[in-house]
Structures are given as C-alpha cells and as structure tokens.
Design goal:
By secondary structure, this protein is an alpha/beta fold. The chain has nine helices and ten strands. It is globular. Bound molecules: adenosine-5'-triphosphate. GO terms for molecular function: ATP binding; ATP hydrolysis activity.
Length: about 240
C-alpha cells in the first residue's frame, strides 16, 4: 500500500539532515506505527508521503502510484490528518464536510451514510450545524477526522492522532482504524503514546535523528533487543544514545 525507498530530506540548504535514507513499507490490512523522539523526523517524513514536502532524495509509492509522478492519483488514495488540523473555521461543520466530500467526488448516497455514521460515532450530530470557530480543540480534531474518512481512503495517515481526543473518541478512532484494516486498507500514524502503539499496531518503525533504527512486529522488536519488555523499554533503550 505504501512503499518508501531511500527517502531523505535536508533543510537549510543541506545543513539540517531531517530524514536520512529511510526505507519501509506498509502492507494492505496493516496498522503501522511511526515512533521517535522529538525532532526525529516523523512529521517531515509524513509531509513527504502526503505530498506537502518534496523529498531531497528517494521515492514514495502509494497503492502503486508514485507520489511525485502521479500526485493527484496518489492523493486520491489517502487521507491525512495533521497533528494540528487547520480547518476553514468560518464555515459550519456540515458545510466543511460537504466541501470535502465534493472535492473527493463522494456520491450523495455514500455521503449521507458516512456522515450519519461518523457524526453519531464522534458525537458531533448537533455541533455540526455550528460554525467551526466555536468548537473546542478536540471537536475540531474530530471534524477533521470525519472529513478524512468521508471518501473512504485506502491509506489513512495521521500525525499524533490521539492528542486532544477524549477517551471515548480515542477508543472509537482506534476501532475505525481496525475496521479499515479489516477491509484491506492501511493506517500509518505517528505517536508518542507507546502503550497505544504497542496494543494497536501490526508493525512499528522507530526513527531517531533522521534514521530508522528498528522496525518490525512487537515480537521482532523484542527479539532485536533480546528482551521480553514493553515497547517503552525497547524505545528508551534504542533511543538512549
Ligand atoms: N522548516 C524547517 N526548517 C529547518 N529545519 C526543520 C524544518 N522543519 C523541521 N526541521 C528540523 O528537522 C528535524 C526533524 O523535524 P520533524 O518536525 O520532522 O520531527 P518530529 O519527529 O516530527 O518531531 P516532534 O515529535 O517534536 O513533532 C528537526 O531537527 C527539526 O528542527
């Protein structure tokens, strides 16, 4: 579903090596967690995958489509929810969601069904008629999530999705991620919440100082470190230096 090959990104005319020659893939039906300390290169990697930043080197394919050669077709495959979604907050929630559905060409039958389902799930049925500027941080995040789910993306990409969500909404988001994967779609997300990653992800990659220092299933990561410990233990040991 997602293939990242030898990807690098430098900033400040090459003086900052934010991402250095990383490679990984996310298979259909997989939840993939992307972990790393502050400044490790997670957001930079995600922005290259979704086409917001041009790689210095390397290739990204999404469902077989090169995201630099076929950017529009590649973007149709994905939804991206940034850590701080910037939404058109002068609009009412429902106007925003219909706008997103229009952009992605979602049919009126699918739109009606998905809106009813997700607005109920994330408890925004009433608030959707208010302007977004009146929403709390968590409500803004939820309207962005619903917008991201309306076109039923093949690859759902989220940067720190749990921050700001109440426990019930976080629970439902995790359920939505699992349901997507049961349908053969994929989820790729960054997080600092290691307990969530450990429970939810099929595979995990850990990035540190721009380089991937470990990747695999929890079992593989444990074997790599020769431990029976938690992901927190493994993460701290690997990123200590
Ligand atoms: N626009 C930019 N110009 C220069 N350097 C940048 C820029 N954006 C990011 N960096 C640098 O690139 C490196 C990777 O940053 P990035 O935001 O990708 O990290 P991150 O893993 O997402 O961190 P966090 O967990 O704190 O969000 C850091 O050293 C950061 O200072």
């Amino acid at each position: 579903m997602l293939k990242v090959n030898n990807l690098s990104k430098t900033y400040a005319k090459g003086s900052v090596k934010a991402v250095e020659d990383i490679s990984f893939s996310v298979e259909p039906g997989e939840i993939f967690g992307f972990l790393g300390p502050n400044g490790a290169g997670k957001t930079t990697t995600i922005k290259m995958i979704v086409g917001l930043l041009k790689p210095t080197n390397g290739q990204i394919t999404i469902n077989g489509l090169d995201n630099q050669e076929q950017p529009i077709e590649a973007k149709k495959q994905i939804s991206y929810i940034p850590d701080k979604p910037e939404i058109l907050d002068k609009l009412k929630g429902i106007t925003y969601l219909n706008f997103i559905a229009d952009v992605y060409g979602v049919s009126s039958a699918d739109r009606k069904e998905r809106l009813a389902y997700y607005l109920d799930l994330f408890q925004l049925k009433e608030a959707v008629n208010d302007v977004i500027s009146s929403y709390s941080h968590g409500m803004k995040q939820k309207i962005a999530l619903i917008g991201g789910l309306l076109h039923d993306p093949n690859l759902f990409i989220l940067d720190e999705p749990m921050v700001g969500l109440d426990p019930k909404s976080a629970f439902h988001l995790k359920e939505v991620m699992r349901q997507m994967c049961q349908k053969g779609k994929s989820v790729f997300f960054s997080t600092h919440v290691l307990e969530v990653a450990e429970k939810l992800c099929d595979r995990i990659a850990i990035i540190n100082k721009g380089k991937i220092i470990a990747q695999g299933t929890m079992e593989e990561l444990r074997a790599l470190e020769g431990t029976k410990g938690s992901l927190e233990n493994i993460f701290l040991e690997l990123t200590e230096a």
